[in-house]
Amino acid sequence: MSDNSSLRTPSQRIAWTATIVVSALVFVFLIAPILAIMPLSFSSSAYLTYPLPGLSLRWYDDFITSPRWMNALKNSVIIGVASTALSMVLGTLAALGLAQWKSRLKPLVLAFVLSPVVVPGVITAVGLYFFFAPIGLTGSYLGLILAHTALATPFVVITVGATLQSFDTNLARAAASLGASPIEAFRRVILPLILPGLASGALFAFATSFDEVVIVLFMAGPEQRTLPREMFSGIRENISPTITAAAVILTTISVILLATLEALRRRNERLKAGG
Amino acid sequence: MTAASSTQTEVPLKRRLRRAERTRQLKALALVLPLLVFLLFTFAGPIAGMLWRAIDDREVRQVLPQTIAALADWDGKDLPDEKAYAALASDIQAARTSGTLAIAAKRLNYALNGFRTILTGTSRNLKAMPEAGTAKETLVKINAAWRERSTWTTIKDAGGPVTGFYLLAALDLTRNADSAIVAAPPDQAIYREVFTRTFLISLSVTALCLILGFPVAYLLATLPPARSNLLMIFVLLPFWTSLLVRTCAWIVLLQSKGVVNDSLHWLGIIDEPLRLIYNRFGVCVAMTHVLLPFMILPLYSSMKAISPAYMRAAASLGAPPVTAFLRIYLPQTLPGIGAGSLLVFILALGYYITPALVGGAADQMISYFIALYTTETANWGLASALGAVLLLATILLALVYGKLVQGQQVTGGMKN
Known about the structure:
heterodimer; A: mainly alpha; 11 helices; globular; B: mainly alpha; two-stranded antiparallel ribbon; 19 helices; 1% strand; extended
């Protein structure tokens, strides 16, 4: 242990060892369930137990050939991409505005903009259900995209806002003094610099929509069921190994999102350290 | 530029600067505006609509307009007069023709069990409009309930246009025939228990998260960055894994023929499978798993900000390690503990999916009932009233949370 040098007394060493042991157990608690269901998706048997009687890809085959699951995957991607795009536009504009806006009302506006994250999903879902049903937006893609955009935009505002905070406004002024129009300055100076922040915001937004299930439960018709929605009914009825295959696919997507985000963060930190 | 200067060349400049600044501020506001309008339509508006439904009470007034009008000046002390009976008979006839009687029957049945039967039975037996002056006699003959004062006070109370009925019901209260607020009948008084349960589950999960999260956050904050960044993956991976995947994983692990029971059986520790899921235990385990990162991340960032110099100073001044930890380190983590605990508690309060999938009937939290009354029984007033109570609790706690994280750089909870 690199910082054992500071642990001089035996009691300190015991406390440190206890911290490590407890933390290790918590890490197991956090990771083990996710790891435990993965091998089951490769089982040749329909029972979700160990040891595996044999290996097979039949549950993945099941997933890919099932119109229900493939439709759900397609819906998740459509709704995720569309709400990400919409929340990026709204969220980036708002973050740019909030960075310049000075007013006593600002904390209030910020709290309002971020509130969709805190308000319980069921409340948002019930409100939207009552509100969208009379205007024909329940059971439609548009309704789900609008709802998911509302949930995802706070993450864009936070991520892009954090990037703008570390952005040197003198660069924008320099661009202006060299004769760039505001739009040109944004496109050629500001945008390239905040691009990693925008990408992180987009990933957060996509992950939010991709994982959302409460609003989908209330508002989606049979045509708009997403992956988490199909998993919800699958778990309700009877957990088949196909669900574990779906779980592995979803987790793989999460890992890719997380890895991309981490790469962006590292790049950003390197740039900051360099500048 | 000195503030007192008022020479002719500087005043216009000052004004010009101020004007330029004002334009800049307006432009900034214009950038935020699209999002504000969007959220008004897709978030604030719908929630305001839900809150309105918690007090909206126009169904009976629309179906039985004459009756409500006739009861307007009734003092509620004795039975209403012949005029009210005639109005009711006329309303029932009209509602039967337009097929709207069921709407009023449903609403009145919430307030008085069995009202639906009274109303539909009366409608069925009321062949024609009773002759003038005989409405009371006719109706009472059809159903003796029309001789009860409580039948009429129920209609009057449901006359709207707004009501406290649903909000009172959400707190297990009701109005009696003398419109005093009293405890609801036992078969309807379930919500205080549900709120208590929601509160207790959230509290247990928060405590579990704190106990499990504290050592982990401490370890991550103490280790050198290269190692703690690696271990952080153990926290972030579950954080990013779909809620449904994690819930599914716990069911696979904990069910009676699940991985945990099988292993324990194989090891010879148990003979009969333990009941680990579809009960309170399963709910707490799965919710702790989902919410633990929300505790670890704010704790970690508050611990990261504590300079090791403090502990070294305490040690050099002769404080034993335990004393130094309790009196120097722990107090500095309190804002992080507060922020993490509040965040986990707030998120736990509104939980729906996890208890719905891994809980039994006795483990359902308030969100379950809101969902149930919205989609299954369509008692929208009650669903909205329960939602209003949950929303109020969430907002109050969020305000405390906001105060707590203000001024300190704890960004926990916002996925970063």
